[in-house]
Design brief:
This protein is of the alpha/beta class and about 300 residues long. It has ten helices and 13 strands. Strand 9 and strand 10 form a beta hairpin.
Length: about 300
């Protein structure tokens, strides 16, 4: 057991490997199956190794070697075909279950031997095979070996995990799983364009619209941090937020239902499309919003000071 006076302790690593995307300890990346988690993880490590900007963020300067532990079929072939330029910086490691202490000790020795400084685990279900990770104590056991490895070797780690359908990328078993990670990435969407939400300790939450494929990643639109719901109920603030940020097409702007659905997706204290619709109707009744004509566009009302 170590016992160090706070004034004598020195930090030995940067807080961010890639600002707002990868922290220096444990980052959790979640999303539904086949949404592109492995592709995104590949682009993140490519950014680290090649020192390339990603989604407007520059990685910390340094030389990076990455170990990748996969649990799906043919994962080595998939990675090598996607990331051929990293083959001299990327190590394939055997898949090790959470309770294989000899396997984790061998991994620790190889990380030191080959000077690896980042680990990807794809995915949590493979790592925690045999556990009921709906139960907090068992879930904590699944992460115990990774946390010990991070502590002993000072590496960063990215763990991939599944998300339920209609959960907007949030991790399955989210209360327990998200409590372990220091930084969380949530990937959501269908088709090439995705939404990537980033949140956790040490930085403001952010949301990105991205174009993602195995071949590339680009920033479509930086949505930015979503403001919290004002403490006073904030009806004028909510009306201004809606008018300034909601989609501007007529079909959306004329519909309390469509605007309510959009509002429920913004994480401003409204959880469902129906409650969002009710919030829009409340703003109409209060005079903070109004319709230009019968079934017309919803716009600023007479009681709203812009």
């Amino acid at each position: 057991m170590s016992f160090i006076l706070a004034s004598e302790w020195e930090e030995s690593s940067e807080e961010w490997l890639i600002p707002s995307l990868l922290c220096d300890s444990l980052t959790l990346l979640s999303g539904v199956p086949k949404v592109g988690k492995t592709a995104l993880a590949g682009h993140l490590i490519k950014s680290l190794v090649l020192q390339e900007e990603i989604l407007g963020n520059k990685p910390v300067s340094g030389e990076f070697k990455v170990a990748w532990m996969g649990f799906d079929f043919k994962w080595r072939r998939e990675l090598l075909s996607r990331l051929p330029e990293l083959q001299n910086h990327l190590y394939f490691t055997s898949s090790v279950r959470f309770d294989d202490l000899f396997g984790w000790e061998a991994l620790r020795e190889n990380i030191i031997k080959y000077q690896v400084n980042f680990l990807v685990v794809d995915h949590l279900y493979g790592l925690s095979e045999g556990l009921d990770i709906d139960k907090g104590p068992q879930m904590i056991s699944a992460f115990a070996t990774i946390k010990k490895l991070i502590s002993e070797t000072n590496i960063g780690a990215l763990v991939l995990h599944q998300s339920p359908r209609n959960a907007k990328g949030r991790a399955a078993h989210s209360i327990a799983v998200e409590g372990v990670a220091r930084w969380i990435l949530e990937l959501d969407g269908a088709g090439k364009t995705k939404t990537l939400r980033a949140r956790g300790n040490g930085a403001d939450s952010q949301q990105f619209k991205i174009n993602l494929s195995p071949d590339g990643i680009s920033l479509k639109e930086n949505v930015g941090e979503k403001p919290a719901k004002p403490a006073d109920g904030g009806l004028p603030e909510r009306a201004r937020f809606l008018l300034e940020n909601a989609p501007t097409d007529f079909e959306t702007r004329k519909s309390a239902r469509a605007l309510g659905k959009w509002l429920s997706e913004q994480r401003v204290g409204i959880d469902t499309p129906e409650s969002g619709r009710s919030a829009v109707n409340d703003l109409l009744k209060s005079g903070l919003l109004m319709r230009r004509a019968n079934k017309g566009e919803i716009t600023a009302g007479p009681k709203l000071v812009i």
